[in-house]
Amino acid sequence: MRRSPRSAPRPTPVAALTAVLAAAVLALASCGSDAPAEDGSVTLTITANAISGGKNAASADWIKQWVIPRFEAAQKAAGRDVRVLFQPNGVDDEQYKTKIALDLKSRTGADVIDVDGIWVGEFAQAGYIKPLAEVGGPGVDAWEGWSQIPQAVQGLGIFDGKKYGLPQGTDGRVLYYNKRLFAEAGLPGSWQPKSWQEIIDAGTALKKLPGVTPIQINAGTAMGEATTMQGALPLLAGTGTEVYSNGKWTGASQGLKDVLAFYRQIYGGGLGDPKLQQEAKGRDKSFAEFADGKIGILAEGDYFWRAVVEPKAGVAPMADRDQVVGYAKIPAREPGAGIRGQDFVSMSGGAVRVLNPFSKNPRQAWELLAFMHSAEALKAELAGAARVTSRTDVNAEVLSGDPMLTFIADEVLPVTAYRPGLAVYPQVSAALQEATAAAVSGTPPEEAASAYRAKVEGIVGGPGNVAD
Questions:
Q1: 137: Cβ contacts below 8 Å, ≥ 6 apart
Q2: Total domain count for the chain?
Q3: Which residues, other chains included, contact 315 with Cβ-Cβ below 8 Å and sequence gap of 6+?
Q4: Are residues 179 and 167 in the same domain?
């Protein structure tokens, strides 16, 4: 359904401002959009790490060819003269992050800004961004789109309980399994484990098959962030623990010890291949082995379905993917033991769009942001592709032909969680990867957890910022 953007008050002409206020405005650096001109016209600017013909080209083309002309036309129909500009970028993510951080620090930059969800907390703590309602006004809380974004998915743009950004597309982690191997092992073709023990039980049955690695859950430092996102964090969430909560980082908690014990049970018990975790291209090898029917259960994101084992264009294509590959939610350690008392858990990533708190036209910047996240706009951005978006109404329509992605949207997103968007997170993540590597290599869980806590204390400023 097409929805018109909400109305905003007509900008106050500069000529009507007092001399003192005018001087103050002139003293401020430009925010990437002109102040309202004397004729009432407004210029808004969007920036993203996207550029036509280069990085994220489809997103850049959508902004230039769909968002801008349609938003300008909608504003004109509402009696406003609004011009929208796009500032493209096509650089490394860290370079882009540095650029927009410097812009915001100096009170410049675009009105609507694309950021990685993992940067939200860091930017909020630095004062670079502010809650949407604080910038965009009362229209923010009244926006129709909130009812279409599951609360868990809204978490991508939330920090300290406040909404700083609108989530763009997202994803989810699940357990994939090979139905053919399951049948050979006497396991059900439709499998949904309800506890970690049921995963172990299935792995034990698969162990009887020659040449098959029963379970692959990423571990160690060679797999980098994939270890954290596909393994450690969803497992930790399954114990009711988050890596960062209530202003403190988790330390040698019972939840972490349980996670490390689970890793040890898999890799010390012959249910996983410990050498795979140490190889530089171990994750790619795990993809190939699953596609070749040599891995029974694999923890991965929906990217694996869309881009790895996709029958025609996948990096490890499976012609019979739709018949052979099953998928299940990741269970909590036991029913009800997960975060928020959940039976099942997941982790998600994704980007958000935020408002520049120094915009000279914050109300109309919010209208532009809301327009970009309308159902019509998201469908236009997909351009016929099947990908999980943040909106349930869009997902219901565009994913109807893909049962797996529908499963992610309907079953996984409502129970998902996100990484803390804080500057020290990558270092904490690396320490967590080291802890899983220690567990896989035989270090007792208590010892690995204690070593992890000590590293985290050094990263986050001492034991006062760590809780067990």
A1: 8, 362, 363, 366
A2: 2
A3: 284, 287, 307, 308
A4: no
Question: Is the residue at 329 inside a domain?
Answer: yes
Distance, in Å, from the CA atom of 288 to the CA atom of 282, rounded to the nearest integer, reads 10
Which segments in the chain show pLDDT lower than 50? 1-35, 38
Instruction: Please tell me the predicted confidence (pLDDT) of residue 385.
Output: 87
pTM metric for this prediction = 0.85
The whole-number pLDDT of residue 30 equals 35
pLDDT of 2 reads 30
Q: H helices of 45-176, where?
A: 57-62, 68-77, 93-105, 120-126, 132-136, 151-154
Whether residue 203 contacts residue 210, with contact meaning beta carbons closer than 8 Å, is answered with no
- Interval 84-128: pLDDT, tens: 999 999 999 999 999 999 999 999 999 999 999 999 999 999 999
CA distance 29 to 207: 65
Please report the pLDDT score of residue 264 as a whole number: 97
d(CA 170, CA 302): 10
Phi, psi values for residue 308, rounded to 5°: -100, -60
Cα distances from 62 to residues 81, 86, 195, 225, 380, in angstroms, run 22, 11, 43, 30, 8
Contact 244, 250 (CB under 8 A): yes
β-partners of residue 325 are 178
Say which CATH number the domain at 238 has: 3.40.190.10
- Write out the residue range of the structural domain in which residue 397 sits: 28-171+348-415
256 lies in the same domain as 405 = no
